[in-house]
Amino acid sequence: MTTRLLIALISAFWACVPAFSQTPTLIQHVSCPNSREFGSPQSSAPDYLCPLPEPSQAGNALLVGVMAYDAIFTLTDDKSNTWTLVNSLVDNNKVYVGLYLATNVKAGTRFIDLHSSVPTDNVAMSVSEYYNVATSNSVDTSSCSAGSSSTTITAGTLMPTVSGDLLWQWAVNGVDGGGLPNSTTSFTPGSQPNIAWQFLGTDLYDGAAVQAGIYNATSAIDPTFTSGTAQAYDSCVMAVKAATAGNAPTSAFRIVHMLHQQMPALGTNPWPIQFASSGNLVVLSALTGTNSITSISSNPPNAWLSTGPAAIGSDNVSQIYYAAKAVTSNSLALAVTLSGNTNYATFMMYDFTGAASSPLDVDSAGQEGDESSIVSALPTCSSCLTPTRPNEVVIANFGQDWCTATSISVPSGALFDSATFTGNSVNGPQTVDQNNGWLHLYDSGTGALSVTWGETCGSEAEGGWAGRVAAFIAARAATAVGLISSADPSGYGEPVTFTARVTSRGGTPTGTVTFKDGSSAFGTGTLSGGKTKFEISTLAADTHSVTAVYGGSGSFAGSTSPVLTQTVNRVTTSTSVTSSLDPSGSGQPVTFTATVTSASGTPTGTVSFKDRSTTLGKATLTSGKATFTTSSLAVGTHAIAGLYEGSLNFSSSRSAVLKQIVNP
Known about the structure:
Blueprint: H1 3-15, E1 25-32, E2 47-51, E3 61-69, E4 73-77, E5 84-90, E6 95-102, E7 111-116, E8 124-131, E9 139-154, E10 165-173, E11 187-188, E12 198-203, E13 208-215, E14 224-240, E15 254-263, E16 271-275, E17 281-287, E18 293-299, E19 304-306, E20 311-312, E21 317-324, E22 332-338, E23 345-353, E24 355-363, E25 367-371, E26 377-385, E27 392-400, E28 404-410, E29 415-416, E30 420-421, E31 437-443, E32 449-456, E33 463-474, E34 480-485, E35 490-491, E36 496-503, E37 512-517, E38 520-526, E39 531-536, E40 542-550, E41 559-560, E42 564-569, E43 573-579, E44 584-585, E45 590-598, E46 606-611, E47 614-620, E48 625-630, E49 636-644, E50 653-654, E51 658-663
Parallel strand pairs: 1-15, 35-42, 44-51
Antiparallel strand pairs: 1-8, 2-7, 2-30, 3-6, 3-8, 4-7, 5-6, 9-14, 10-13, 10-14, 11-14, 12-13, 15-23, 16-22, 17-21, 17-23, 18-22, 19-21, 20-21, 24-33, 25-33, 26-32, 27-31, 27-33, 28-32, 29-31, 34-36, 36-39, 37-38, 37-40, 40-41, 40-42, 43-45, 45-48, 46-47, 46-49, 49-50, 49-51
């Protein structure tokens, strides 16, 4: 085999193996509700707005599935991205089902707008954000299939041209968009070779679902999943190509899945919900007419807790339930039991990742009121909640008798979570979130919070309302500590500055760092810009295992640096000897004084006084000096020297020879 052929074969092999960095990866998904046929439309050319849970990242792809009835549609968004209609169908009931794709989207895209040229109904939408989707020639292939009554949901046959495509399948009940009596009992994801299907969103009442997976083959595939109830499902699927593109999420505490779940009057009690989830905190923010939630159970089992007593208005009940340390599932099944089933309800389902294990901080205890005049801004909370720590997520809702919530003006930075449809009446309850308000806010501070909603009204004022606010705690962000030394090795007594840098994907850590030598602390420093320093000049001459220990803070977890080995060398010394009497007479006492000096510090230890190889005596250094007195030197010339034996921090040294003459 020639070298050129070998290179060609290797290149072809790697071309067929998708790199890990090129795998399309989900950031977030939302399933917005079916509008049904309720009420008098606000507009003859209505807009259906479905908000993403979080603002999009720059360069990513948005995949959208829509359904509506007998109209002509255009898809836009709040950042004017370019949208491609990938595929669509119109079934025998005049139900339109379409797939749309926008790649390389602008940062901050959130509201997806399906605009109809004429009045329409049964509008619904699901939206997913992915990164690592090709930004050009993105669509490999697609298919749509109008179904007949069956429990099997199929979108037709795909023949991908490359391995590693993202398959995204959208299915809806073509019989009035589900609803009673046409809702389904459950959905089960597909099980097919070369792909691991995962639900992104499932709405049992509306009969709508999205499944997705990476297809690691190029053979024909008929994307399929099943319904627990036989219905006529219309389904479309698109295969989009992988490429290194876009950006991963920047926040560890965020929403991954969101479901706008409706419950009609006279609905089944307990009400079933199937919620695709993967995080560690599931929140159910509920507005339930005059009925209240009495209990929630789920499979897998979770402990469902209320944030506080129900807020009860004239025709509105506001509650928030949550599952901490949630056992989530691609098909988490909930049963929500209410005190009655006489009213419409909406359960806003949030799937958070990055929450604390005990996530609830504070709840506003619920607020109620009655607005007798039409207002464009409705305050429902005046400093009603104060988070105890920064970087929490705040969730709020409110229900009203009349009017439609359209925005949130207070608090600043809050994200309005309600879907809206101007093809419905301005007065609730309508099936698109009952015309009521939901929001979430990532609050960086600990100040008191107020809530004010933007409103659109007809001839009726808002009337009675009820709402609440709750704050949930983020898991402390993981941190890493780096440690460097200004001088290694160093000499004893020489100043050494240790610098610790604490980093985190969750922001810039604050707090204190403790510097340790083994298990013994020798200094602390306060972080500024994620860094702190400590200078020390008293480390003993030895090998030291130095670490920097970050103690953590309200938002950041503690961590310890890797061990830095700091070598401190003994200091060089110099020894000199003097005589008190030279020459001296036989039997006359003579005192020898040894002085030991160093460039750093005052040596300690002992000095041996030598007459050539004979040790005359030893003395202990005091302030760098040692003395020895003798009167037994023989007549003659003696070679006296001082030998400093050294210590932990000071090296040994020997003086020059001092000639001592002893006369007869």
